Amino acid sequence: MHEWSVADAVIRTVINWVDDKKIKVKKVVLGVPSFSFLDVEILKEAFNIMKRDSVLDEAELEVKFKDLRFKCKNCGKEFSLNDVKDQIDSVRSEFGEEYPMHFMPALAPSFIKCPYCGSHDIALESQDMTIDEIQVEENGTVKTVSQG
Ligand SMILES: [Zn+2]
């Protein structure tokens, strides 16, 4: 499953970053694109099994969903899914709950137009998963490290 490779990647990344066995990782905050097909429960389960006997032994995984972002190729402005909520709502009322974008975010440009200039020439911004925050304990002190 996809969730297991994500958990594996997160754990490897954090272990590489820590690179010091005196540190204990307490918490990892993962930013996930809102339209990804990840099952958070499976992801956490995978994380909890794969973290054993590593610096992440006591770590808790927190998942935060990030809003989709688009960029208009015509006027260059960026906007989020929230900025075109009215358009999404009308697509949704036309197709019902199972509207196509739910399955294929790449289709979004066919349904959405730029809220600034009305162009349909829009691109989906890259939606990478990011480790937003790592909470570690070092010599009994807990500190939070933000990853940009
Ligand atoms: Zn535009």
Automatic annotation (TrEMBL):
The keyword Metal-binding applies. GO terms for molecular function: nickel cation binding; zinc ion binding. This is Hydrogenase maturation factor HypA. HAMAP family: HypA_HybF. InterPro entries: HypA/HybF. Involved in the maturation of [NiFe] hydrogenases. Required for nickel insertion into the metal center of the hydrogenase. Zn(2+) binds at residues 72, 75, 114, 117. PANTHER family: HYDROGENASE MATURATION FACTOR HYPA (PTHR34535:SF3). The keyword Glycosyltransferase does not apply. Ni(2+) binds at residue 2. GO terms for biological process: protein maturation. Belongs to the HypA/HybF family. It comes from the Archaea. Keywords: Metal-binding, Nickel, Zinc.
